[in-house]
Amino acid sequence: MSTRPDGSDGAVTADLVGRLGQIVGPAGLISDPGGMAGHLTDWRNAYSGTAAAVVRPGDTGEVAAVVALCREAGVAVVPQGGNTGLCGGAVPDSSGRQVVLSLIRMRRIRDLDVANQTITVEAGAVLQSVQEAAAAAGRLFPLSLGAEGSCTIGGNLATNAGGTAVLRYGTMRDLTLGLEVVLPDGRIWNGLRGLRKDNTGYDLKQLFIGAEGTLGVITAAVLKLFPAVRSRATAWAALPGPQGAVDLIGVLREIAGDRLTGFEIMSRQSVEFVLRHSSGARDPFGDQHPWYALVELSDTLPHAGLDEVIEAALGEAFDRGAVRDAVIASGSAQATALWALREGISEAQNHEGPSLKHDVTVPVSRIPAFVERTDRALREAVPGIRIVTYGHVGDGNLHYNLSKPVGSDDEEFLVRAEALARLVYDSTHAFHGSISAEHGLGQSKREIIAYYADSHGLDLMRGLKQLFDPRGLMNPGKVLPGL
Fold first, then answer.
1. Residue 41 exposed, middle or buried by CB count within 10 Å (0-12, 13-18, 19+)
2. Of 41, 57, 71, 425, which sees the most CB atoms within 10 A?
3. Are 205 and 160 in contact (CB under 8 A)?
């Protein structure tokens, strides 16, 4: 029988499950296998586990009581939001001795302060509902990503989500002013302050953002709001290669300034999958091009003349050889269609068999050399491999996904997943990049990070883990290697 760091065996008794039920009530406890199933597997069916129970507290006090009770019993807790992650960070292990703590019942918008430009929400609030609440008040919450209709703010915070507007607004670290967190011993840290200046010691909230629930359970947050966007301009540009993207974004920054909100890059292979598998998808050009960029400008003024600005930038980029062709959306419907080409890539790739996903970031200036080197190494390793590269090139984040060669065997491809990942990550490291840009480490990258992270940095993180969670009960088996 295995034991935990504190010497307990971590067994979950019927009495413990009953006491958990007393805390959260009948609506908050799931202990039958059928009811728990959706909480035990991620949305891609890439990671799965078992659990003794799923608890769904209704407020922060219940979260604290659940965590305290599990600590007393030496039982591990796996915090979970919308379960839309890509690295298995919110999925329990296979022991059946962990309790999944789902925040999905905690969805309240606690406060919206227009004058202070803040919104205070609970961790289970769906991202789209926060966007809508901000819009109803004439404000903008700018985080935007493909899973926004189902992912939760708690999950966004736990993984430091980025999305398509990082170029202008930043990641969740930049968008968060305060947090409420249940600590591993059941205490509640109330850091829900909507202050933009606060130099009273360490910025504790940043310890929990991106920690994937390994240091505590985020239960609420104070988030920044911005003036509503009243005009946009969207364009789709054909590029000769990744260098064209770097050159184009430089021109856009010169001409559009901080009105540049989104800049996405896509390889032809990525777009071909969408055109093949997404209903209604249309190629904006008659000719094929090796790379594409999707550009969006936005402004708070209703008539900001953004079409003229984006046209001037594209014209300048064309003269410099960075752009081969371009189309500017004539209205919201066409803009939506252009974004659908970008946002449909991940789902479309699933129709082509197993997909090996890598979420990396390198300095923007190094993207062309990185892509050239990484593509060459992958094609030498697996002739015919289909490389699906796309991402938020404005912040250096590329999703470097791989599909098997046409006609090859699924299992033969999957057995090479680790070796192919090492090729991508070795190249990323060589260009001073990160092997996890916005998806986190979870289970999938927790061991391999030891090869690339600074050893002193890992020691510091292990020290923080020991300080906050000496018994190792908060989302064990995630983020940190060897723990």
1. middle
2. 57
3. no
Long-range contacts of 448-451 (CB under 8 A, 24+ apart): 448/421, 448/422, 449/481, 450/481, 450/482, 451/425
Q: How far apart are the first and last CA of the chain?
A: 18
pLDDT digits (tens, 9 = 90+) for 21-50: 999 999 999 999 999 999 999 988 889 999
Q: How far apart are CA 164 and CA 146, in angstroms?
A: 9
Q: What integer pLDDT is reported at residue 394 of this predicted model? A: 84
54, 36 in Cβ contact below 8 A? yes
Residue 278 CA to residue 469 CA, distance in Å, equals 46
Sign of CA dihedral 156, 84, 234, 357: positive
Residues 384, 19: Cα–Cα separation, whole Å = 56
For 445, what's the count of Cα atoms within 13 Å in the CB-facing half-sphere?
25
Q: For residue 99, what are the CA distances in angstroms to 3, 56, 244, 369, 444?
A: 16, 10, 49, 45, 20
The mean per-residue pLDDT over the stretch 430-438 comes to: 93
Is residue 92 within 8 Å of residue 100, measured between CB atoms?
yes
